[in-house]
Amino acid sequence: MTWEVVIGLEVHAQLATRSKIFSGASTAYGAEPNTQACLVDLGYPGVLPVLNEEVVHMAAMFGLAVNATVAPRSVFARKNYFYPDLPKGYQISQYELPIVEHGELFIEDGEGNEKRIGITRAHLEEDAGKSIHEGLDRSSGIDLNRAGTPLLEIVSEPDLRSAAEAVAYMRKIHTIVRYLGISDGNMQEGSFRCDANVSVRPQGQQQFGTRTEIKNLNSFRFVERAINFEIERQIDLIEDGGAVVQETRLYDSARDETRSMRSKEEANDYRYFPDPDLLPVEISHEYIEAVREQLPELPDAKRHRFIDDYGLKADDALQLTMSRPVADYFEAAVGATGAKPQLVANWVVGDLSGALNKDGLDIGESRITARDLAGLVTRIHDHTISGKIAKQVFEAMWSGEGTADEIIEAQGLRQITDSSAIEVVVDKVIAANPGQVAEYKAGKDKLIGFFVGQVMKETKGQANPGQVNRILKDKLSG
Amino acid sequence: MDLHAKTLTELAAGLDSGDYLSVELTQALLDRIAAHDEKLNAMITVTGDEALAAAAKADADRAAGNAGTLCGLPLIHKDIFCTRGVRTSCGSKMLDNFVSPYDATVVERLAAAGAVMLGKANMDEFAMGSSNETSYYGPVRNPWDLDRSPGGSSGGSAASVAARFTPAATATDTGGSIRQPAALTNTIGIKPTYGRVSRYGMVAFASSLDQAGVITRTAEDAARLLGVMAGFDERDSTCLDEPVPDYAADLGNSIKGLKIGVVRQHFDEGLDADCGARVREAIAALESLGATAVEVDMPNIDLSVPTYYVVAPAECSSNLSRFDGVRFGHRAKDTGDLFDLYCRSRGEGFGDEVKRRIMTGTYVLSAGYYDAYYLKAQQVRHLIADDFKRAFEDVDVIAGPTSPTAAFKLGAKVDDPITMYLNDIYTIGANLGGFPAMSIPCGFVGGLPVGLHLVGHHFDESALLRCAHAYQQETDWHTRCPEGFA
């Protein structure tokens, strides 16, 4: 039997606000436990939530970026359950009336075709705190620093058909939220994570199979592996005559498997109801249009522009637009040189990316500024140095030895373009190799490479290869 | 005349003219509380040292020419308002050990105006009750008859004002908790428009209904306090960003031409005939002052109590979830796992009425029941509010009885929740619609006080206060003092 996989993702993106969604406490990561939780976050008697306007703005930006409806009226609801890291005994979320609905984005499917993935909704909610079990000798600790951190939960339609599509979708969301500047997307710190709903059904069947939900996947690799494990598990189960049970599962990355957490029967009845402490969020048409005006260029648009305006190769355009700072870096460099954009792209995607990766740096931390990289590319473009020498200059720039021009000057790497100087070397090489000269003249054209090599060796690679070639051919045919 | 018998306005004049110091006044009232509260149990906490320190500061401020509008004037806070450094019990064992780290907005504003807090008043547990018998600290007794209830939930606030412990007390009203005790103790009780006074720092019972107000002996005093308490607070999203009228300045305006709607449904067989007669007389008195009365029909008003007992418990079941024994409040000893910690802390910390409402509320919000109960109740709530709005197209205030009977005996209804709930049959509608409402002393039945209930249109507390003030200029019911408390 052929099985079709059906996946829907719930992505949780932490919004990059300075203060929490309903209180003035800081959202900065990594503080001492419980130092960033005010009375509102602690759920003290009598305190009340007040909505941080910035989260509404951010959610609206996201909605517009995925071509969704930004609801003119959305409502916060209470999701009631008891847990020690949930101070109020309820989480403030949105339920029946979320702020964003009916969106979409496009990914590449397995065949390289563009595929539309529906976004059912995106809603605002507060994060819970964190239970700490390590190092506390048979008791548990609670850190409420994270309690009240704003989250945007983005729910896809069950349109994804493989783990690879799920990852492509999640990456796309990741790119978009970072482009918009509404989330830092930091997966190690838990700012970007997802739950995956996975089911399988016989190819051609309309009805969905029973799904399981894998909770809290915090890396692209885990998403792929957890889903693939779960697909295998479900298919094996059904083919062995069993049935999938609707349940919540956890992915154990150490064992690369998913494990049951709780079944549907054990699921909480969250008793959602509109939070009477908060008014409905009403957004005017003017507000939405103002947000639209301020939207930055989004990855897809930028990619197409890079291809159309700069003539970049599709792959390079994709690479360069995955992250807005990289795209900005590229454009800054292009603007500072007369060289062809593709040449700049080669350097950004190639040597620069390599160097950044090697040193574990972000583009923002690059040891070479866009302007300085443009300086290097300009010197290739104007034949001051060859591409080969340029790599040497790049290394020196990365080591902090100065700008391209400074290094070229200091190390005397300027390409020799003075014909009379090259002629002197060419004459010397011809004189030193009478045998090869004879063979060349007898018709062994390929020997030209040997002569070029000798000249380049004599000039330490600094002679302009094109000129060397021409002068050699002239002299040898003379 | 003894200081305890004076109104807030009279005391303000006395302090201003230097007849006495706030320290003397404060000490006199503290002595009075110490002498009489054993009979009433109106107080949960008396903050004598803090009060005298605040009074001394007020005296110094006044001497330095920095007197705020309430400088040196005493009051008592219902123990539902968070008071920094002072136990805030909410009448519950759950919070018996809870010392608030912050002040409620109401407390903060009154203190900033110079008011001196004498202590914290007894109340029904988490404001759930109409007799003050659900308090962990025991029932409050009605100064008019010590065998009777002062009403609830603000029973301690009302009894302390009636017994002249204080000229004024703060209170809260979710379904009648300011007005019914005011009616049963011969005091003024006003619940402003929902959102007029910040709920920040008021321990929540039912967030969409809770509203802070005051209990005093005169409309004038109520106006004075309300002017300080009311107004926008950015810490409460449901607090109205509307200008607050000068209530005190409005008081003197005539009620000539004011139209009073008398709700037909409120004079039914559930109302004690003698109480009804007092209320009719009061309405006639208002007419003699130039108001006109017409009968209004509110076809959905009878649904108030059942609607309220779905909405309020639903919100309460969620609001009270934070009392889990983890961060503050009562925690059971020697608990096993987390579930045990929750169950026993809450089982021990909450009383029966609170548990009953948490269970009711949990039920009406549960999957499969939400639509039939909670959603339906919210729809009916709109119908009831519409009844009021329709009435306010023709009239300025709506008048009727505050409570179906005068004060009842302690223990008489405590085992019969439904009968107890019906005590609030005339007051709940105002909460469901968010309208301002007030109870005014309007006579006696068998030696027990009766209250006239007035409801105003949204934001129009002024109309209520004006009526009450005009009425109090013509009558002396409010000056009557219970025997033994003169």
Class from helix and strand fractions of chain A: alpha+beta
CATH topology of the domain at 3-255 in chain B: Amidase signature (AS) enzymes
pLDDT < 50 stretches of chain B: none
- Domain count of chain A: the total is 3
Computed Rg of chain B: 21 Å
Strand content range of chain B: 5-15%
Broad shape of chain A: elongated
Features:
heterodimer, A: 478 residues, alpha+beta, Arc Repressor Mutant, subunit A, 3 domains, 9-stranded mixed sheet, 3-stranded antiparallel sheet, 15 helices, elongated, B: 486 residues, alpha/beta, Amidase signature (AS) enzymes, 8-stranded mixed sheet, 3-stranded mixed sheet
Provide a descriptive summary of the structure in words.
- The complex is a heterodimer of chains A (478) and B (486).
- Chain A has helices at 53-65, 163-180, 220-239, 285-294, 299-310, 314-321, 324-335, 341-359, 370-381, 387-398, 404-411, 419-432, 434-441, 448-458, 465-477; strands at 3-14, 69-70, 73-74, 76-80, 90-94, 100-108, 114-126, 130-132, 141-143, 150-156, 192-202, 212-217, 247-252, 257-263, 273-274, 281-282.
- Chain A is of the alpha+beta class.
- The termini of chain A are far apart.
- In chain A, helix 7 (324-335) packs across helix 8 and helix 7 (324-335) packs across helix 9.
- Helix content of chain A is 40%, strand content 20%.
- In chain B, 38% of the residues lie in helices and 13% in strands.
- Chain B contains 16 helices and eleven strands.
- Chain B has helices at residues 8-16, 22-40, 48-63, 105-112, 155-162, 179-185, 219-229, 247-250, 273-288, 304-319, 338-349, 352-365, 371-392, 417-421, 428-433, 461-474; strands at 43-46, 74-78, 116-121, 168-173, 188-191, 211-216, 259-263, 292-296, 397-401, 437-445, 448-456.
- In chain B, the strands form two sheets. An eight-stranded mixed beta sheet of chain B has the order 4-6-5-10-11-9-7-8, with helices on both faces. Chain B has a three-stranded mixed beta sheet with strand order 1-3-2, sandwiched between helices.
- In chain B, helix 9 (273-288) links the parallel strand 7 and strand 8.
- Chain B is globular and about 65 Å long.
- The mean pLDDT of chain B is 96.
- Classes of the chains: A alpha+beta (478), B alpha/beta (486).
- The A-B interface holds A 39, 42-51, 78, 80, 82, 84, 87-90, 142, 269, 271-273, 276-279 and B 81-82, 88, 90, 95, 98, 100-102, 104, 199-204, 206-208, 234-238, 314-315, 317-318, 320-324, 326-328, 338, 342, 362, 365-367, 370, 374.
